[in-house]
Write a structure and sequence with these properties.
CATH class of the largest domain: Alpha Beta
Largest sheet: 5 strands, mixed
Shape: flat
Protein name: LysR family transcriptional regulator
CATH topology of the largest domain: D-Maltodextrin-Binding Protein, domain 2
CATH architecture of the largest domain: 3-Layer(aba) Sandwich
Number of helices: 12
InterPro entries: LysR_HTH_N, LysR_subst-bd, WH-like_DNA-bd_sf, WH_DNA-bd_sf
Helix content: 40-55%
GO molecular function: DNA-binding transcription factor activity; transcription cis-regulatory region binding
Number of strands: 12
Family: Belongs to the LysR transcriptional regulatory family.
Number of domains: 3
Structural class: alpha/beta
Pfam families: HTH_1 (PF00126), LysR_substrate (PF03466)
Order of helices and strands: HHHEEHEHHEHEEEHEHEHEHEEH
């Protein structure tokens, strides 16, 4: 049950229960009253129970609310104990700008970012979306200290540390997958290839693989949003080479198809300016990323 709940919303319910007032809870937590009401409603929807009786003046716990309050107190206590047990990151501070592919960040780094924010509250981590060339240029120009790129940079002046081999897959409409099963390569005649643009390594690899197979796409279409690419493929407008994790759910639900072709994995790694001494905050972020991916294998 608690894995479905949002921590801030649980804390809101706990404070409302103690203050017996939406307005006093809003004042104590620094929210507007509509936010407090929204948090309470979201928790009630998640647990499927009414937690408060709404009175002319204030609120009162229902039987279910009293039970929920007991567990929310335990939740709050565990949070305080966890904060005390974790090694202190208070002494490390600074601003670190990390340039990273959107698809990599959203599928592999969300839990990691949460852990960084909790353990190192004085490190201000700024994320910038960027492809290989964007990221390397930013590093060379001093606009960011660290980057995560797909493939090994050919540009000089940056150090590269491999992190993880990413499984790639040809993503197609379900109709094209069925045609492929019947017709083979002929199903790809005059196909449109969808990608993030010529600056993206994924699209460059896709072009190379098609060329080696003797396939000439009718055209290339550029989209800068992963979600837009998925929707475009769903309606039959083309195919794309993407990391499997970004489309795993849609493939399993048969909302998107895929071609069972052998596609090389693509190394993703960390880059920073060659010869530069990184700040303590940047070294901390780099080491966390290295440790995170040290034992990870692309098993999907």
């Amino acid at each position: 049950m608690f894995e479905l709940l949002d921590g801030k919303q649980v804390e809101t319910v706990r404070v409302v229960a103690h203050t017996k007032s939406i307005s006093r809870a809003a004042e104590q937590l620094g929210y507007v009253q509509s936010t407090i009401t929204s948090h309470v409603k979201m928790v009630e929807k998640t647990v499927g129970q009414t937690l408060f009786h709404r009175l002319p003046r204030g609120v009162e716990l229902t039987e279910a609310g009293a039970i929920f309050l007991r567990y929310s107190e335990k939740w709050s206590l565990l949070g305080r104990e966890l904060t005390q047990e974790l090694p202190s990151g208070q002494s490390i501070e600074g601003t670190v700008t990390l340039s990273v592919l959107e698809s990599f960040c959203t599928t592999r780094m969300t839990d990691l970012l949460t852990a960084i924010f909790l353990k190192y509250p004085r490190i201000k981590l700024h994320l910038l979306p960027g492809f290989m060339e964007d990221t390397c240029q930013r590093i060379l120009q001093g606009e960011c200290e660290l980057g995560i790129v797909a493939g090994r940079p050919q540009m000089g002046g940056v150090d590269f540390l491999p992190l993880v081999n990413v499984r790639m897959v040809w993503v197609v409409p379900m109709s094209m997958q069925l045609r492929w099963e019947e017709e083979g390569w002929e199903a790809l005649d005059d196909v449109r290839v969808i990608g993030f643009g010529p600056q993206c390594v994924y699209q460059a690899v896709a072009s190379q693989l098609l060329q080696e197979s003797g396939i000439k796409p009718s055209q290339y279409s550029t989209f800068y949003s992963l979600e837009m690419m998925k929707q475009t493929i769903k309606v039959g407008m083309g195919m794309a080479l993407l990391p499997y994790r970004t489309v795993k759910e849609e493939i399993e639900q048969e909302a998107l198809g895929y071609l069972p072709l052998q596609v090389p994995t693509l190394i993703h790694g960390l880059v920073w300016k060659q010869g530069d001494e990184l700040s303590p905050a940047a070294i901390t972020i780099r080491d966390i990323l290295v440790e995170k991916f040290k034992n990870e294998q692309e098993a999907d």
